[in-house]
Fold each of these.
Amino acid sequence: MRNNNHNHGNVIEVQQISKMFGSFTAVDSVTFDVPRGQIFGFLGPNGSGKTTTIRMLLGLLAPTSGTALVLGNDVRKQALNIRARLGYMSQKFTLYNDLTVEENLRFFGRAYGLHNQKLRDRIDYVLEMADLRGRERETPPNLSGGWRQRLALGAAILHEPDIVFLDEPTAGVDPLSRRAFWDLLYRISGQGTTIFVTTHYMDEAEHCENLAFIYFGRIIAQGAPGEIKAEHLPGDVIQVTPGSAADAMHVLTKAHQSGQIPGSVDVSLYGAQIHVLTQNADATRHQVLHTLEQAGQSYSDVDVIPPSLEDAFIRLVQAQN
């Protein structure tokens, strides 16, 4: 168990950091802080600059400009000082397929400088924590995606890092395994480890204490999930479940743009449903029903719900385009 006496302040401080690859700007003047002991979500679509930012914070890529301090060390000049205090789990789960679960953990533990009883204790801890007892002699290809994911996380935290970076850790993993993985993250965070997690799953982002939205290399919003929603989505959402999402979307967008739906701020497609952002839920709901019925559009439900992070993200992205 780690010592939590220093559970204050920021463990990551990023100021105007940019990364250019030739004439392409992958990360553009990004600024954010990560407080100690938090689960910090770095949210954005694929290709938005999430992995490039992580690689700069790990000291694997030099920033083109700006400064980044990780555990008080400048990543450009003092990367070697922090390597041993960081954990990293990449999108690809860097595990050795010809080694067993236990051999993988032993290999990574030794790479992090663990030996003898300390190494045995940490392997025991990871097997227990990740519920891998009884699977010690399995090789990664014989494990499901969820178990491989837990093993990769266990390997990343063997050496009790101050910060663990997780790059899209749940991509391609089934929803039940994703939920179990997040339960693990809460436990690890509760023991004082700071978790920096990139994701494009909005439901996961809701679980983070603080977030930064990155889009085409720029941060377009940051704060606690509730703060982001309150700032960018004042009001409620009318959620429509229509017979034909495409047809109903066309009808409601036209009505919104021509001012026929009172209080409506925005209309967006949300899978098979439509979300109408409004500052007057009752009037908007009534007019949405009337508009659909007049256009001969069927629907099974029209509900008033609180805005989600996905609503906020869609609105923020629309504002950029």
Amino acid sequence: MSGTQLLHRSVAILLISLLTTPVWAATPAVPQLPNPGTVRMSKQDQEKLGLQAAGEVYKTMPVLPDSNPMTQYVQRLGKRLVAQIPQQYSWPYEFHVIAQKEINAFALPGGPMFVNVGTIAAAQNEAQLAGVMAHEMSHVYEQHSAKAATSTKRTIAEILGAAGGILGGSAVGDLARAGIQFGAGTLLMRYSREDESQADAVGAIIMYKAGYNPMELANFFEILNKQGGSPPQFLSDHPNPGNRSTAIEKEIRNWPHKTYQASSNEFQSANGIALKTRSYTAQEIAEGAKTGRWAKENMQSGAVPESMKQSVSAAANPAAAGSPETIANVTLEQVKPSGDFTQASGNGFSISYPSNWATASGQNSLTIAPKAGVGQNAIAYGVVISGARDSNANSLDQAAQDLIQNLQQSNPGMKQNGSIRSTSVNGTQGREVDLSSASPIQQNGAPLPERDRVVLVPVSNGNFLYLILISPERDFGALEPTFEKMLGSLRIQ
């Protein structure tokens, strides 16, 4: 056989081989991060929102300085994950550690991330910690907080932010409208199950590209699920979108095989330090925040960035600066409603209110209150009205119960007084319930008891209108006729 014939035969065999190779034998494609899309909040505004929230963290939680070995390790791990994100989709991510026992982590709009010492101690290997961080980074990547802040559909937890910044606005009010709330010694960020599925999928890609097995993210959630007692805050903030293990396994099934890194000596060292580090419970942190302890200690340790030192320093001495969580003693005469009523309109509703009270509008919300009964971040007298969606509720009673649970979770010590009652609001059947809590009004160094009457009215499929009638218990009876008159004037448009 000549050389030419041999060449032709070799080419023919190669073509036959290529043509008969099954499609499934083709090399799997390396997964690529999706386009996160656009939102109505600019990148600059998201970064500003994140810095506002970070400032509140330094005021209310014990943050370890950047010189701490755990923080340095988390920062190196974070940089490895950030390197997997295309520059056009990335954010100025930064990484810090909070000295808190509970297992939790959160990433703020624009990129600041905080990981609890308890999370570093609970992770069994580096891949699990990387999974938690990649998941949190994905919430920023997908701009979930910005989407929540600009959405016309609000979850029941966001009602709590409606009073934030009333009659003038504040950083805390801005954050609450984006679903970022401070309370109970931690920061609460509420995500939908759809958000969680998206963060799992994007986080899995980041992990894979960084050399970690994405299944370790699901494994970490499983570890938390198997813990006894109350579920960790991390699970409360991150509702299970379904079977995480099955979903992630399906996601990565056709990705190219690679050898994953499970752990490292650096992780083992950081994990050991976490187990020995002095950390605090959420309750201890909440108590310390009231006295300005963490702001003071963060300033002394050098944990506070230069750009935030002025505001954090002021929070270190709440007695001198005037604590934003309390209101000087107010008499009923100072907040007494006028007999003359005027009308205000919100998103899909209108209501009448005393003409000597003031209004403050938020995203899909309206707060009505006397100026003397309002502080920088607190409301002692008034009415908060907000539209919300609870697609998981199959009845009015369930929607009311969901709201109560969210209120109690964000306000430790809040109690339900009596059962949920049927009520009629201008001819529409609704539900109401009375809750008790601590008023922001201080008397003799102690908060007055407060009554919060919650009224909900159905609007359409899964949509409700919530009203929270607020007053110190001592004055609720005197204000009740005004509250009832306001409810009777409510019109759903």
Amino acid sequence: MNTKIATFGAGCFWGVEEKFRKIKGVVSTTVGYSGGDFNNPTYKNVCSGKTGHAEVVRVEYDPDIVSYEELLEIFWKIHNPTTLNRQGFDIGEQYRSVIFYHSEEQKEKALESKKRLEKSGIYKDPIVTKIEDAKEFYRAEEYHQKYIQKQQTKSHFGI
């Protein structure tokens, strides 16, 4: 299987991961931190707002089953790309809307999809999503991985 990587920041990574995890063609998801200038950040470091990192989901996918364009469509639908450094009650630079591209092809497709969304008129406010070259990815602590799935399993078994 020939897989590719996509990285998205769209608020708290728990819900974002849960959405992408369920997509046919997504091989794996990993939550972590990217886009900052601090080596090996922890959740506490990132939440301080001093590292410059965003909470992100790294998506490994099979492009023969799900395209990057389809992943972009999901990204745009699962969050509000017009709120700067905020998604709902989550406020701070770590919750920013960002696409980290891993190739020139991904960059072009991300820019095209953003332009299409801007022209669509769906949002009255400007889209603030950044499209940036992928930076170092730091895997988040284990308790953050598949967090929502773990909570559902606990409640299902009455734990």
